[in-house]
Amino acid sequence: MVIKKFLATIAICVLAVVAYAMWSSVYFKQVTTYDRVGLQSPKMPAVNCWGDSLTAGVMGDGVTYPKTLQQIFSAQLIANGNRTSTPMVRNLGISGETSLEIACRGGLKMHLRSAVMMNRPGHPETFEIATKDGRAVSILRLGDVGVDPVRVNGITGRLNRVNNNNLYTFTPTYIKHQDTLAPGSSVTTYAATHYRSAIPIIFIGQNGGYQSNGDLIRQQKAIIKNQIGGNRQYIIIGLHTGTAKQRADLEKQMQKTYGKHYINLRAILSKNGLKIAKIKATAQDKQMMEKGMTPASLLAADALHFNAKGYRTVAKIVYARMDALGMIHYPVGAQSILKNYY
Predict the structure, then answer these.
(1) β-sheet bridge partners, residue 161
(2) Which CATH code fits 42-105+193-324?
(3) pLDDT tens track for 234-245
(4) SS3 203
């Protein structure tokens, strides 16, 4: 009898070990490479939050939606018995940038407009950068998040903005001899090269930078296509400003293009934003919501940026949509700590 109990105990322990191994093999994967880009150890990759001041978190009193998203990931993992390996959430927002500038940082194709001699004696040679359709590039105008070091025609170095006329210089990191880069040489940012194994969350367009709705979509797709597996895992956040009537055409086109990968932020906030934030609607909120606008209680004093509660609400909406699309991987039987908001 004692031997049978002992064997039964051993069998239970073995089954427990096997069950844990099966769970961990689903939730984690070994470090591998794809197209020379290292994938992270957690099965869910890093998250890149591309955007402007609404992503950087201006007027949020230290609260940003990327930071809150990271906190929600941590809370979810702890709730399901795992206290480590929280996916990295990168805040790649630069205040004031246009959609074109953000897209250039995130993977939109860029090239030299003229030949450039590297390591020229005296002052470095200045040059312009353009997109495929010939538009002047103005990255580094307001900050360097994910830009340097760049690769120009495969050569790594630092890109420096000279002035407000979109002139740049390039200083190679290792090459010491003089060499000439031909017109049309590709220019690739650090993020576009090294952050490709992440899930992109794209919240751009509030500061303009696109010529049409279709142009904005092309810029968004440039970031998506630069990611490994980006055609399957990405989130597009729609503009939260304006009324339902004012945004109808843009939102219709976004919905048709991206389906459930598109978050109609204005519509969700105007309908359920205060409920998600657990805020009682004011008279002003009700008036704005009737027009399909984001309620004032979620906005900062400038009526454009979010306040702390607004940024937290955006993070909850983003997390819930990622969960609904299967981007967040749980052990079998685990439950999400947030419901989906549609």
Answers:
(1) 168
(2) 3.40.50.1110
(3) 999 999 999 999
(4) strand
